[in-house]
Amino acid sequence: MGKRVKILLLMGLTIFLTLPAMAQDVSQEAQRYMIRGQVAMEDAKDLSGFQNAVSEFKKATELAPEWGDAWFNLGVAQEKAGDIPGAIRSYRKYLSLSPDATDYSDVETRIIRLEYRHEQAEQERIKRRQAEAEKARLDRLVQPFKGDWWRWACRDKKNYYRCNEKEVHGSNWDPSWYDVVAGIRGVTNFDFPGDGTVVISFGSRCGKIIGFPQGGDISDTKWFARLDIHSNGLTWTVREDGPWRQIWSDTRYGYIMVSCTRPVDESNYNPKTRFYYDLFKKP
């Protein structure tokens, strides 16, 4: 086994390499690559420099696969180049070829430390990948809701903002916030907190409403609002600090129709009763 030498690199890192001078049973070509690898380590200023050293030491191990010192130096270079699994394999190869090495215990300890750090880094990478995948999934859920939406209101024959079943499916819808002179419809933009929900903060009689998309399109969405329905079943109070309550919605046809007062349970629904409705539709 060759002599260990301490080298202070330009990056402020300290490493120990094995000098090849005493490896008399190794070919000159293999020793040549060992020296080249040592120089590459001394001159390394960044990862690419350490990768150059890895390349040189690998050639030495290929020419002299039983040369333990070459495997040790390869492990050092791989560690500095960020290839921790490769460094661990090289250090283990060194130990298998050098069972009587004076630094056997130190290298074993080095492997254990690298294994722990690699496991922690891998767990962090897994968490990041999972977080990125979850963010992409949530973005896909809300994608159909992005863009401008027109708000409409349903009026009955007396010009009240409430309709029965027949009127809802008729021509009783008027654009809300319509500037007659300018001919501009009111446009509503939804908010996206990033948690897979859709928030309509402006334009609904229910106050702020939140949609929870269940799939990849608008039709499979449940809507909630913070409000109390009065005993007459037709009026309500918005409660900013109240519990979220599911409201009736119809999103089957690419638009969003919601009602604060229409029962969510269709068994309690009377088609002749007039309820307040809001309709959001893309231009």
Describe this structure in words.
The chain is 37% helix and 20% strand. The protein contains six helices and 13 strands. The protein has helices at residues 28-43, 47-63, 68-81, 84-97, 104-142, 165-168, and strands spanning 4-8, 14-18, 148-154, 173-175, 187-189, 198-200, 209-213, 221-225, 227-229, 236-238, 245-250, 256-259, 278-281. The strands form three sheets. Strands 3, 4, 5, 6, 7, 8, 11, 12 and 13 form a nine-stranded antiparallel beta sheet that branches. A two-stranded antiparallel ribbon has the order 1-2. Helix 3 (68-81) runs antiparallel to helix 4. The longest helix is centred in the middle third of the chain and has 39 residues, at 104-142.
Summarize the topology.
Elements: E1 4-8, E2 14-18, H1 28-43, H2 47-63, H3 68-81, H4 84-97, H5 104-142, E3 148-154, H6 165-168, E4 173-175, E5 187-189, E6 198-200, E7 209-213, E8 221-225, E9 227-229, E10 236-238, E11 245-250, E12 256-259, E13 278-281
Antiparallel strand pairs: 1-2, 3-4, 3-5, 3-13, 6-7, 7-8, 8-11, 9-10, 11-12, 12-13
Helix pairs in contact: 1-2, 1-3, 2-3, 3-4, 4-5
